[in-house]
Amino acid sequence: MSESKTDVLILGAGVIGLSCAWYLLQRGRRVTVLDRGRVGGGASHGNCGTLTPSHAAPLAMPGMVGQALRMMWRKDAPFHVAPRLDPELLGWLLRFARRCNWRDFEAVNRAKAQILTHSRALIGDLVATQGLNCGFAANGTLYVFREQQSLDEFGWHLDSLRAVGIPVEPCSAAQVRALEPCLRDTIVGGVFHPGDAQLRPDRYVAELARVVRAAGADIIEDCAAEDFTTAGARIDAVRTSRGIHRADEVVLALGAWSPTLARRLDLRIPLQPGKGYSITYERPALAPRIPLVLKEDSVCVTAWADGYRLGSTMEFAGYDTSLNRLRLDALRRGAARYLREPEGPRVLEEWYGWRPMTWDDLPILGRSGRWDNLTLATGHGMLGVSMSLASGQLVAETLSGVATTLDAASYSPQRFHL
Length: 418
Prior knowledge:
By secondary structure, the chain is of the alpha/beta class. It has a domain at 3-43 and 203-270 and 361-416: FAD/NAD(P)-binding domain, CATH 3.50.50.60. The protein has helices at residues 15-26, 64-71, 87-98, 102-130, 148-152, 155-163, 173-179, 201-214, 258-262, 325-338, 384-400, and strands at residues 3-11, 31-34, 50-51, 79-81, 141-145, 169-172, 189-193, 197-198, 218-220, 225-231, 234-240, 243-252, 271-281, 292-294, 299-304, 307-316, 347-358, 364-367, 374-378. Strands 4, 5, 6, 7, 13, 14, 15, 16 and 17 form a nine-stranded mixed sheet that branches. Strands 1, 2, 9, 10, 11, 12, 18 and 19 form an eight-stranded mixed sheet that branches. α1 runs parallel beside α8 (201-214), α1 packs parallel to α11 and α4 packs across α11 (384-400). It is globular and about 65 Å long.
């Protein structure tokens, strides 16, 4: 069996692993990245590609438990928990429920705003300086409503963003339709977020891999990390499907699969796989110019020069590998309620992927307290692309022993005793 040795070994070639690699390379580290599949083949591939400081508000907030209970019996609801006996999921849901209060909401809102805003700026700079061909556009995002009551009740969102310095603009029905002629006349108003942006996520990850390779990293695909050998409080080697890999430092960046491998190190990472769906089409004639969130139906709509995507939903069904037709149909029905031309001429891809969801809705970034040379970079929920470069920068700064640009305490693995 072959062996290799590097300075930093990153497990996972999704957007987070590659972002860590980029910033470690900038600090002169030798980096190898392993992935059990292809670059960006997981949750980095089929999401809607929006960069959203506007999503700073945590999922856990007052009233969310009641809303979730009302929806969970509908299999096509935007939020669904598949009924099953799963003690880990139950514990996760109970911890999530305890955080549905304004004190925790405000703390997480600040922490998410910090990392999202910084990462949005870093991504814009990297696209420009490295010439990344990924459909990046700083167009903002527009939330739209078809029910006045829902719009009226959304005032908390504007307040929460203004409290952390993120720009947000309420829009009348006339203003919304002027911004987006693709919307039906039934739209009653909306909220515009000028600081957001968009890109094509699969191409962004491919371009990130390109510049990481050009900077000197070795990216090995179809190489599954399977187990570890340890010596005292250090990881001595990572056993993979293609040989033994040794490194001075190991970064675990496997997204929703992180808990499975971490158990080999007696770590219990409190993540649940939140299954999301998307449908990618050829671009319709009347496509949105700005990424949209169709609020009452929780559908995200993104158009690029050569494509168009409907996405979102959250399903807690473990690592179920079926493509749930009910949930894909719900995306189509939701889009039809808001858009004049809700679907493109031809379906290019129907997709699902698992998001790594923590119950406090914050990523896990930093050194393990159990293993001296292990760093965790996971738990980004629905915002892995949006948080990617700031996460990579923080990991690289931590491993280099320098002061971190962001206040790292909120994201520390120590809050989960990892």
